[in-house]
Amino acid sequence: MTVRKAWLLTAALAGAGLSFVMLLVVGVYVVAGNIVNGVGGKSVGLAKGAVPTAYQALVQKWGNHCPAINPALLAAQLYQESGFNPNAKSPAKAEGIAQFIPGTWATHGVDGDGDGDRDVWDPNDAIPSAAAYDCQLASYVKTVPGNITHNMLAAYNAGPDAVIKYGGVPPYSETRTYVKTITTLEKSFAAPVSRVDPSKQAAGAIYFAQKKLGTPYLWGGNGTADQGGRFDCSGLTKAAYESVGVTLPRVANDQYNAGPHPKRSELLPGDLVFFSTDLNNSRAIHHVGMYVGGGYMIDAPYTGAVIRFDPIDTAEYFGATRVTEDGAKALPTRV
What we know:
By secondary structure, the chain is of the alpha+beta class. The chain contains twelve helices and five strands. It has helices at 14-32, 53-62, 71-82, 102-108, 123-140, 148-158, 160-166, 173-189, 202-211, 233-242, 252-255, 325-330; strands at 272-276, 285-293, 296-299, 308-311, 317-321. A five-stranded antiparallel beta sheet has the order 4-3-2-1-5. Strand 2 (285-293) and strand 3 (296-299) form a beta hairpin. The two termini are 23 Å apart. The model is unreliable at 1-43 (pLDDT under 50).
């Protein structure tokens, strides 16, 4: 039985910008040839600011509750279920940040903060309960062949009996999608322990964005004909990646979770770069641009400006995301 439901430079520079950007695009492939394939090792560290400050310590602690989970995986589940909203309630009556249904909470809720009660609406109880429930499921299916984490997630979605019956992840479309979604999202919450693979779609996305240099900014702009082909910041990045077959969420703070997070020293053209007034909380991100190299991005900055090149190194620089197709697909439709 499914316990929690998934929610399921100015216009004058535009001409010069083409040759500048195309040189950088070539650089994507030069660098790609020198990076080892794959993200090495499984990290239990959280990417900077990926989890809201109020919950970071809880997720870090309880994400190490048993070998089948880690903080990034637990964060991915919480994000998928509620977008870290402690007041979330689904049509199926799933409640709180971890989206427990009442019957499951009655059996598996724990008093995580030791205050004498078990409150599904209190993240201090709900987050520990989510981790404890994951680990209990892992113990139920520990003798089943295959990846223990995948089997645990499958048990979480379809029930442990189904995992035992089929000797691993059962052949249910919803369950297999759930396992892939959470393990993909995990990568966007984990602090990388090695270089992150270049994005295959980066060159095309940059090509789209650079053609928009000099276009006036429009708040809420998606580049449609009735909007005069104008964009705001996240509208531009969404359209750029959509041009190469990758569908991103509409707003900047949701786009942050569309892939792993390279370090500042490891940025490549095509990475999305984000800015926030709270450098510890990805939900506070208010601006996004597309990195083109040399410390610059293409972005749609604000009303009265045009799509242009801007430096990324400001006091509000939050971090970056290397967009992947799987990462974008794994994002919940509502957060």
